[in-house]
Amino acid sequence: MKVISVSNIKGGSGKSTTAAHLACALARRGKTLVVDMDMQGDLTDFCLPDLDLVALEESNVMSVLLGMKKISDCIRKTKQFDVLPSTLSLAKLTKYNPDSTSLCLQFKRALEEVRKEYQFVIIDTPGSAKHELTTAIYNSELILIPVTPSKWTIRAVNLLLDEIAQTETVFSQKKKIAFVPSWFGPSKKHRELLEKLKAIEEIPTLGEIPKSESIKTKTEKQESLKKDTNAWYAFDRLADETIALVDPEHSILNFRL
Ligand SMILES: Nc1ncnc2c1ncn2[C@@H]1O[C@H](COP(=O)(O)OP(=O)(O)OP(=O)(O)O)[C@@H](O)[C@H]1O
Ligand SMILES: [Mg+2]
């Protein structure tokens, strides 16, 4: 089981969109569990558009993080993938448990229970440095950082890299990290920013996800991308690049970190 987080401290940087369509692409390659760790629930909405809210409140990612329910009792199954949904109540997570280490370990134990069932786990994370982010980073082998061109890009990336470094130090872990550039156009400003990211040592920059109306509208309509379109290929390639990083032995790409 390979656990991958999609993270950026900057809001609106394409985390949920990337997580959603990457999950669709990974699910074509192996059994995939989608975990929504963001109380906004955008990924939950995408994966489970018809979810009953009363049932959701009874079992969700928060129930698992607090050790109140078994993960298998909170996972919903769809045709494409299995989903551990989020809920707005996640806003109160730190009120119930302010200790991020115990949250990290609780989620580790939960994932251990389903280790044999899934080839891939994709975690969407909130756009801020909350305990949910630390829990996701701690439990992931690879952190994908979607980056969009903005004046905040480098600052936001550095804040997240600090957060990852802190988790690595506290828990003596080493994470794989990769950038996923989205929305970069041909302008000089965008290309220079992309070059700055590519210059950051030891962090590969994966293939670009285009700015695309179909990605936006399909995600909003909670639909998968149309097969064989440019957008579909971009995420299909991202799935191959992701596998090359977490499972090079089984990769069709000759690409190592
Ligand atoms: N490649 C793309 N092309 C066009 N629109 C996109 C693309 N990626 C994301 N968007 C749009 O940008 C907006 C922000 O994307 P998204 O919700 O995925 O960001 P996020 O990082 O998850 O935000 P938050 O921090 O609020 O969770 C959404 O309206 C989404 O449809
Ligand atoms: Mg999001």
Structure description:
This is Putative ParA family protein. It comes from Leptospira biflexa serovar Patoc (strain Patoc 1 / ATCC 23582 / Paris). Residues 1-170 form the AAA domain. This protein has helices at residues 15-27, 42-47, 53-58, 61-65, 93-96, 100-113, 131-139, 153-171, 188-198, 213-220, 230-246; strands spanning 2-6, 32-36, 76-77, 82-84, 120-124, 142-147, 176-181. By secondary structure, the protein is an alpha/beta fold. The protein has one domain (2-247): Rossmann fold (3-Layer(aba) Sandwich), CATH 3.40.50. A 7-stranded mixed sheet has the order 3-4-2-5-1-6-7, sandwiched between helices. Strand 3 and strand 4 form a beta hairpin. Magnesium ion (MG) binds at residues 15-16, 38, 40, 42, 124.
User: What's the end-to-end separation, in Å?
Assistant: 19 Å
Please report which band the strand proportion falls in: under 5%, 5-15%, 15-25%, 25-35%, 35-45% or over 45%. Answer: 5-15%
What do the pLDDT scores average to?
A: 95
CATH domain fold name: Rossmann fold
**Could you tell me which ligands this complex binds, including any ions or cofactors?**
adenosine-5'-triphosphate, magnesium ion
Q: Measured on Cα atoms, how large is the radius of gyration?
A: 17 Å
- What is the top-level CATH class? Alpha Beta
Outline the low-pLDDT stretches: none
Instruction: Tell me the overall shape.
Output: globular
Order of helices and strands: EHEHHHEEHHEHEHEHHH
- According to DSSP, the number of beta strands is 7
Helix content: 40-55%
Strand arrangement within the widest β-sheet reads 3-4-2-5-1-6-7
How many independent structural domains? Answer: 1
